[in-house]
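Hi, here's the filled form for the chain we discussed.

Project: internal
Contact: R.S.
Residues: 224
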Amino acid sequence: MKTENTTPAPGTDHAGTALTPEPNPDGAGKSQRRAGRGKRALGVLFAGVLLAGGTAFGTTLPDPKSSEAYRSVADAKAGAESERDSLRSDYDSLKSDYETLQAGIADKEAKVQARETEVGKAESAVKSAEAAVKKREEAVTAAEKQKAANTVSDGTWTVGNDIAAGTYRATADVGSSCYWGIYETGSNGSNIIENDLPGGGRPSVALAAGQDFKSSRCGTWTKQ
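And the returned structure, exactly as it came back:
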């Protein structure tokens, strides 16, 4: 007679039903605690790495201000600022000179304008004086012409043509050789109207149109 094996399979009961393991509270807590400690250790390690890396980074990188490029840029900036300040100083100086010149020009222009006004007045006065002198000259010339027209010297003159009719008198005492005569015009001295040898003094004669008057060595005669 064959005997059956009644030993249950692993994880089953005698009836062959699968068995569910009962939870172990102590084992689960220990696993969780171990996992927390692992996370904290990992965090501390990461922070240490970062700190070490930062320290290494700060100590190994060079100071940018000590670089050749930085010094070159700084020198260029200083040179530009110096040139700017120099140009600004030159500009201020030129501006001051310009303003001074402008003020001087304005003052000179005012003086020139005042002088032009004075010159204009002087020129006006000169023109007035010239006009007065010209008028006087014209008056003198007219008087001289009139006097010349009314003055008779030695010679034979036709009244109404050469000299005006009227009474004429010697301008100075005549000498003993003085002779004057009045003739009919066109008679060529043959028709004597009046004549005389005064021998001295200042003789006078009355002349009319149609007569010729002759004076010899009597000086000048002036119309009265």
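Let me know if anything looks off before we file it.
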